[in-house]
Amino acid sequence: MTLLKSGDHVVCTDDCYGGTYRIFTKIFQEYGIDFTFVDTRDPDALAAALGPRTRLAWIETPSNPLLKIVDLRAVAALCAARGVISVVDNTFATPCLQRPLELGIDLVAHSTTKYLGGHSDVVGGALVTAREDLHARLRFAQNAVGAVPGPFDAWLVLRGLKTLPVRMERHCENGLAVARFLESHPRVERVIYPFLPSHPQAALARSQMSAGGGMVSVELQGGLAAADRFLRRLKVFTLAESLGGVESLAESPAIMTHASVPAAIRAANGLADGLVRLSVGLEHIDDLRTDLDQALTP
Ligand SMILES: *Cc1c(COP(=O)(O)O)cnc(C)c1O
Question: Does residue 58 have its Cβ closer than 6 Å to ligand 1?
């Protein structure tokens, strides 16, 4: 946001991280920056939202928590043609699974709190770019605003990075196995996972990601009440926000991570109150399946 000034306009993925929605609408909107939230799965919707004052497009893919996929090549081309800075929040995919700069995106943002740190014991972020002009401006802004991590936080992220590729392999393997298990379960209404053939954008996901990741979203039969019961009964999965650590977590976006997104907007984006988001960890897959099964048993 330090690349922008009052009067500038930003287009953002509608199904984005709740905290991104919150900081854009509650902090930066007050500074005179305007935001339009659109379904960026549709390149025409993105193109239509780009106006004369649009300076930046903030894209999340896979999105949180509905795991919508945005065509990064199309976004990069559209933004480059209009002189708009393209930014991808790559937190869910990590550089192991998706490399937006290689597809023409200008800036990549990571919450290093998640997979990069990997052990749920550090809070941090990273911006990555190959553009010298953006790098110089961001480096200046980082120093000026004081967004500088402490040495111990930096050390924790570097420790996590050493095992990132190995952890991601297991996250992806377990994520796919959990998604398949839940999809075949009679008490489950819908499973969302980018590499399941039932995902409406499975082909696009496979064209820009090397694996499906560790995040799985699931709607149970019985809506919110069923989700509540399920979350209370899980034992191996811990009820908690955050994601991307070695341990499996489960949460309810409607009342936890995305509670700051107004109910009407959640509904319009397809985020049901009964949706459960799973961050599938590195445990043995039999333990995870057994836990999910017992929590679903009447
Ligand atoms: C958690 C998260 C963030 C914010 O990260 P923090 O380190 O918790 O501030 C941003 N984007 C996505 C996709 C996230 O999951």
Answer: no
